[in-house]
């Protein structure tokens, strides 16, 4: 058969940060692929900016993008929190993470990161722009998948990976095929695992130099809403106004706001302080293209079925409060790339069952840690929005602890982060490991006692509400 002699190939659906990262991972692994992206401009100015932490940066460094990436990024050293009443608290967890892992916590415009990832792919015949996927099917059992686009073109691959976001067509087709082949595998509860409690109004503001006096991120906590501001490259500031909705909503039945509705919310809170004398009205004034979006949260129970797998936002979402969303997406791309490289080395064509088992392993490697991040993110989001007396107490306790829980939580997430197994560990990461190993360990008896006594109590206090 022709298929028996054809090379292993992956079809990537979606050319955002996750899809482009996966394309580079597969290229470095020597795995053939084609990437299908529905937008003509892969670097469109969609969204504001994102935080990139060491678990994402070390993978970008493995792929050789660190220097180009850093040129467009702004390094953050502190993270400030302003509580109702005006009290300002500082956390130095970004600087502490740099010391621990060798990479800074940075902010970068989403479009700039996309440009860094896509520049070397310009003109590459494997990148197909302006292509919308409509159907994924499998003509024969144990055979390749066929991906049909809106213009009738068909692309064939051994594996299809959906990196096409929260409204993923790949995921919808995976569910459809699962219902035909394995009825009951995808439950209605799983389909509604992604929820929305908050609406986000955001933008990337170009601030005049005379009023730009912002070096680090500030989170302003108000009752039922939060204003976050974060400096970026060349005098820009990304901001997001997060507003509690009247009730929880579940995908796909989530509310949509028009720009007029978003503007009305901004006007109502126009005097909200951002930094210095700069208020929300100033951020809105200097933002050329503001946006509004539901802030999705949650994690699906099933990430792959048969020869289809989903990565990034198509299977897990966090709010911006924790700053880990893009990093986990980059990690998921690297993790599945390790699996796909292993599959590509098979000397015989693999059965559907064999492929399914290997792709399930990709999910198992990430599931528990990502679920923990999801829980922490939901807790922090509600704490930042002072969603209840319980959240106010939580914020107070976390500030008074003799340890920085933001730092310790981030360390727990990052120290076991995924890497590309077939590329060497970057020098920056290796040197940080050696330096950390040489240091004396232990926080001292007082801090250990505080952590042992307070964190379990806090966990039990909150788990019922947020898990």
From TrEMBL:
Transmembrane regions listed in the UniProt entry: 446-464
Pfam family, one: FAD_binding_3
GO molecular function annotation: FAD binding; monooxygenase activity
Keywords, alphabetical: FAD, Flavoprotein, Membrane, Oxidoreductase, Transmembrane, Transmembrane helix
Domain FAD-binding: 9-341
Alphabetical list of Gene3D superfamilies matching this protein: FAD/NAD(P)-binding domain
Family according to the record: Belongs to the paxM FAD-dependent monooxygenase family.
Protein's recorded name: FAD binding domain protein
């Amino acid at each position: 058969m022709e298929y028996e002699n054809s090379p292993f190939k992956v079809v990537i659906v979606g050319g955002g940060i996750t899809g482009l990262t996966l394309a580079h991972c597969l290229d470095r692994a020597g795995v053939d692929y084609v990437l299908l992206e529905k937008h003509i401009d892969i670097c469109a100015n969609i969204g504001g900016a994102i935080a990139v932490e060491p678990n994402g940066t070390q993978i970008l460094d493995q792929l050789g993008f660190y220097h180009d990436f850093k040129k467009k990024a702004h390094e953050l050293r502190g993270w400030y929190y302003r509580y109702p009443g005006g009290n300002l608290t500082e956390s130095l967890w970004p600087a502490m993470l740099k010391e621990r892992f060798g990479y800074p916590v940075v902010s970068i415009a989403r479009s700039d990161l996309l440009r860094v990832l896509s520049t070397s792919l310009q003109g590459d015949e494997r990148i197909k722009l302006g292509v919308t996927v409509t159907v994924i099917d499998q003509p024969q059992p144990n055979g390749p998948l066929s991906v049909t686009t809106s213009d009738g073109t068909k692309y064939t691959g051994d594996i299809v990976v959906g990196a096409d976001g929260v409204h993923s067509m790949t995921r919808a087709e995976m569910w459809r095929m699962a219902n035909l082949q394995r009825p009951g595998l995808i439950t209605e509860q799983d389909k509604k695992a992604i929820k929305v409690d908050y609406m986000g109004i955001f933008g990337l503001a170009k601030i005049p130099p005379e009023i730009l006096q912002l070096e680090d991120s500030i989170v302003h906590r108000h009752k039922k809403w939060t204003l976050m501001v974060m400096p970026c490259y060349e005098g820009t500031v990304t901001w997001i106004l997060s507003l509690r909705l009247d009730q929880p909503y579940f995908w796909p039945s989530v509310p949509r706001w028009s720009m007029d509705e978003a503007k009305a919310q901004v006007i109502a809170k126009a005097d909200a302080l951002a930094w210095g004398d700069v208020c929300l009205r100033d951020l809105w004034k200097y933002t050329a293209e503001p946006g509004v979006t539901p802030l999705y949260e949650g994690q699906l129970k099933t990430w792959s079925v048969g020869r289809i797998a989903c990565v990034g936002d198509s299977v897990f979402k966090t709010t911006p409060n924790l700053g880990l969303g893009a990093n986990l997406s980059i990690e998921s791309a690297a993790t599945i790339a390790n699996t796909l490289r292993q599959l590509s080395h098979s000397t015989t064509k693999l059965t559907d069952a064999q492929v399914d088992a290997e792709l399930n392993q990709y999910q198992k490697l990430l599931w528990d840690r990502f679920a923990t991040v999801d829980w922490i993110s939901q807790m922090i989001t509600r704490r930042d929005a002072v969603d209840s007396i319980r959240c106010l107490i939580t914020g107070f306790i976390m500030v008074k602890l003799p340890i920085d829980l933001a730092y310790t939580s981030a360390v727990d997430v990052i120290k076991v982060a995924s890497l590309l197994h077939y590329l060497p560990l970057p020098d920056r990461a290796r040197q940080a490991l050696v330096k950390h190993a040489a240091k004396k360990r232990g926080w001292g008896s007082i801090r250990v006692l505080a952590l042992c006594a307070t964190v379990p109590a806090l966990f039990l206090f909150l788990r019922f509400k947020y898990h």
